[in-house]
Queue: 4 jobs
Job 1
Amino acid sequence: MAIEYAGVWNRSKMSTEFTRTIDWLAVAYAALYFPVPVYWLLLHPAVNTWRRIGYRSFWIALPVWILIGVPLVLMENFLFAYRLPRNAVTYCLGAALLVLTLWISRRVHQEFSFKKLAGLPELNPAHPHRGIVDKGIYAWVRHPRYANMMLGFIAFGLLTGAAGIFLLAIVTFLLYLIVTPLEERELREQYGSEYEIYARAVPRFLPRLRRKWRKSS
């Protein structure tokens, strides 16, 4: 009987440690990625002003991450105050989405340099890394980075069952619905018909179930 109780206690302890680990990863993910659309929302509407300031504009990123990321960490108890029921299906689906986000992230970094990811061409239209990226995963969707971040929140929502994480997923989605048209407005101004043709052929977030787009020679 004592051995049976010990086995139950060990399984309960492992379950608790697993939950805490997933919760910690979810909070870290939220603190790192939830400020991203807010940063772009500050940058894109006033991009001409930020261009006059130059690369010093990137210093706005630090206070954005501090003002948003740190409170999210401090609000951990609030984020996990209410949990939706979880089961094997939600765990498997959440894990599958998490693996998918890692794969998409790898594909994005194959096509985008760090400088382009950081937004240097937005601040300097003459930057050597400027240009439309339309290869690889960008031949399937125009904004795989943003779609990937939204998938990450859904994945952690399924794994943790936390209503707070699902709420962040919804807010992130709404923010990107605002950010992406602003970003695309700049791209149309910079690249004109070249980007217009690409935008008409390639969907914004969700790929079409057909052969990916290829630029005509």
Job 2
Amino acid sequence: MQDSIPMTVLSSEALRQNPMPDATAIPAILSAAGDAPRASAAATPMPISAESTDEQLMQALREGSEEAFTALFHRYKQPIFGFFSRRLAESARAEELTQETFIALFRAAKRYEPRASFRSYLYAIAFRILRADRRKSIFRAAFLGSPKATESASTPSHTEDSLWVRRALAKLDATDREIVMLREYQQLSYAEIAAIVEIPLNTVRSRLFRARSALRDLLSPPPAAAPRTAEQTNSAEKGPRQ
């Protein structure tokens, strides 16, 4: 059995490479607000390098290293932006929520405990921010009406294939859709998805199988009509007997 949907189908919607906010600006803002992690005077700064693991960088950030935050930001800014841009209609809003995710990460650094992978920890923050934004959108739509979405001139038009994929994903159950997107787009493990969506691991497996099957059916072209036989054609041309 095929483990995943071909990525040539799901990746037909290319990521929009929009400029992201500069990482060094976020610690400066939070430091001025008194939210930045404080480095201990007795602590020896952890060395930072390109080979540092996510968990090592987060531990350094916990000890007050803005260099570690910058490294994490540049390592994950595009994946997190991709997470939001595939779920939101407006690229600008995806950028805003990406920045909110890293601000939340920075503020939570002192409380970080490496119980799970850093990647699942970060996506869990992004998922909570996305759900909060959706609740706000529902509230605004209920009381203020839904504003019409406008296409920005800087936003590239979607190809026919990407729209086809978007429409198919939109027809899935909300949780099934989130599971299959986390697996196929973000390439998260079953355990990471279970932690983010907060459902049992076996439930992730079963719902992912169901979502993939439904998505394959939705993405399959309709069967072509069988060609007429010569007998059927002659019968149609003669018309009904009197």
Job 3
Amino acid sequence: MSRSGAKRIVARIAVWCGGWSSAAVTPHLTAPMLGAATAVIVAGAIVLSGTPADAKSSYESSYGFDRTWNAALRLVRVDMGLKVTEKDDQNGYVLFEYRSPEGGAKATAGSLEVVRSPDGDGAVHVLVQLPSMPRYHEQVMVDALARKMRQEYGDPPIRRARPVTPDAGADASEP
């Protein structure tokens, strides 16, 4: 590198850092630096402001916790032939090694969770997560579970609406 090239680099760094000015630093050298700095800042803002990947698919099952849990576990173990690494019957989750049916030899971690309804006897929420895979793999599992439930148990039971109890607040009429 020539001596004049080194001086230009030093001058650019000085301008970039907002330091001293030099006669060697001219406006035509600072404009490209400003453009490059702006491009880097804009690119960084775009990358950092992106939303994180939230890959998970879910299914609302009207069959209740026990039936849904048993069908989900059979789907993972028997129907799909996946290796279960951890399961908890009481809390309703299973961790497994997922292998893509598209021929992927590498196993990735996956989870299936059956969440009880707040009232304890209503519909349950099934959540499938395969963080390393595209979302459609999760949706295929959810669809397979819904199909399995319908085939094995028939149409989902109809949920009865709970009677609405009147408010006993300050405006309630006395009997």
Job 4
Amino acid sequence: MIKKIIIGLSIIMFIFSVLPLRAFSYQKTMGLTDKEIVERLTKLEEGQRALRAEMNRRFEDMDKRFEDINKRFEDMNKRFEDMNKRFEDINERFDLLNKRISDLVHTTNTMMVVFGGLVVAMMGLVFWDRKTLIEKAKESTVKKIETDSRLIKALRELAKTDKKLAEVMKSFGLL
């Protein structure tokens, strides 16, 4: 129990020894009057208002810039839409051009087939005409030869009696 009393007294003495030090550590501050405090608060409020106004102005400027950027993007989108429309028009033109070329190829193929048919028909006509001509020429030649051979036979018979005719026929190699 004595120990408890000694510990208790030691704590009390320690507390009393530290308290006076705190009392001496107090510094005297500048004394401000109420008027000075009000003036400083007013200046702080004005500064805050100015900062808010500046911040609001900058935010409005940023909003305006974003609107300008949005407008530029809209203009660019419109340009891209115009370009897409031009490309679609060009694609339509190419499709029409392809159709025209296809029609021309079809027409050319048709003309070539017709021309080929005409050539074949003409060649057939030429061969037929030539065959017919050759047959007629053969017939007329055969008839002429038959006629000539009868005539030569008759002249040979006559040449037996006529010396002058015999000499002429010899000169032509008919006797």
